[in-house]
Amino acid sequence: MNQGLLNSLTDAERMLVAETERDALKGLDEDELLDLHQRIRRVRTKYVKNYRRGASAAVAQAGGRGKSYPRNQRDRDKAELFESVLARVSRAVATAAKRASMDLRSERIAAARSTGGGVAAPVPVGGPAPQTSRRPRATKTTGGLKKDASSQAAGARRQAKRDAR
User: Fold this and answer.
1) 119 pLDDT higher than 60
2) Spatial distance between the Cα atoms of 136 and 65, rounded to a whole number of angstroms
3) CA 31 to chain centre
4) Tell me: the pLDDT tens digits for 41-60?
5) Dihedral through CA 90, CA 92, CA 97, CA 100, nearest 10?
6) CA 76 vs CA 55, 95, 121, 155, 165: distances in Å
7) HEC states along the chain?
């Protein structure tokens, strides 16, 4: 990172950037990473907003976007710095979430294996049929398909009539 840019950061911003170093991120759990992610996102949004407002105001004074580009360099650099820091934390959040997901999955599998929930008990002959989520298909229709087709055709006729005007 540019030393001049780091020197232009406030103490709070410098500490926020320091919290995203590799060693500091390793000691954080998923909730702490999400909190850090939110704080960095707020700071990044602040500098993006400051840059855009300053840049739009400078265009009228300078007479064009190209001429006003160098005037707002500090806010642009800070926004870019916090964008890269945010990406670093986002990767750490994704890694922590995947790790938590895998841990939860392995716990569920272990719990299912310990209770023997993998095999269903056989149903006695003549007993109740197992419940299924699908409804049995009707042998006779009530005209629902025909009604739907008729309604679609009527809509198409109305639209054609409007288009012909």
Assistant:
1) no
2) 67
3) 16
4) 999 999 999 888 888 888 78
5) -170
6) 10, 29, 65, 54, 54
7) CCHHHHHCCCHHHHHHHHCCCHHHHHCCCHHHHHHHHHHHHHHHHHHHHHHHHHHHHHHHHHCCHHHHHHHHHHHHHHHHHHHHHHHHHHHHHHHHHHHHHHHHHHHHHHHHHHHCCCCCCCCCCCCCCCCCCCCCCCCCCCCHHHHHHHHHHHHHHHHHHHHHC
